[in-house]
Write a structure and sequence with these properties.
By secondary structure, this protein is of the alpha+beta class. The protein is 45% helix and 21% strand. The model has no long low-confidence stretch (mean pLDDT 89). It comes from Nocardiopsis lambiniae.
Length: 146
C-alpha cells in the first residue's frame, strides 16, 4: 500500500474523531496528515512526508490552536444592560431639550435629554439613543426637525 494512502486514511480517521471530541488538536493533526499525503502523492520520500507531518503538526498546535482557544473562551460579543440600548430608536413622549424629556425606549419610559443643547425635540419624533448617562438617555432626532 502506498504511504500517501495511509496518510490520507489517518487524516480521515483523525477528522472523524475530532468531530466527536472537539479538542482541536486531532483536527490539526488531521490537516498535517493531509499535508503528508500530498507530499507522498507528488512522489516525495517517506522521510520528507514525516518531516512535513511534524512541521504542519507543530505549526498547527503551537500557532493556530491558541488563537482558536482564545476566540472560543471570549465567545460572541453580547451587549447587555444599558449598553444594549445605545443605537436603538425611541419615540418622544414629552418634549426633549437639553435638560429634560421623556421617551419610550424598548417598551419602557425613559427620561431623556438632547445631545444638542440648542435643540428641542417635539412629541412624536423618532430619536436615536446616542448614549446612556445614568438613568437618562441622550438622544438625537432621526430626521431633520422643522
Amino acid at each position: 500500500m502506498e504511504a500517501w494512502l495511509l496518510w490520507l486514511i489517518l487524516a480521515v480517521v483523525l477528522g472523524i474523531i475530532e468531530v466527536f471530541t472537539l479538542t482541536f488538536v486531532l483536527g490539526l493533526l488531521g490537516v498535517a496528515a493531509l499535508v503528508a499525503a500530498l507530499l507522498g502523492a507528488i512522489g516525495m520520500p517517506v522521510a520528507v512526508q514525516i518531516i512535513g507531518f511534524v512541521a504542519a503538526s507543530a505549526a498547527g498546535v503551537y500557532m493556530v490552536r491558541p488563537i482558536m482557544r482564545r476566540q472560543l473562551m471570549r465567545g460572541p460579543m453580547v451587549l447587555s444592560g444599558t449598553d444594549a440600548l445605545v443605537g436603538r430608536s425611541a419615540v418622544v413622549l414629552q418634549p426633549v431639550d437639553r435638560d429634560k424629556g421623556l421617551i419610550k425606549l424598548s417598551g419602557e419610559e425613559w427620561s431623556a435629554r438632547s445631545i444638542d443643547e440648542d435643540l428641542v425635540i417635539p412629541v412624536g419624533a423618532h430619536v436615536d439613543v446616542m448614549e446612556i448617562d445614568g438613568a437618562t438617555a441622550v438622544v438625537y432626532p432621526r430626521e431633520a426637525l422643522p
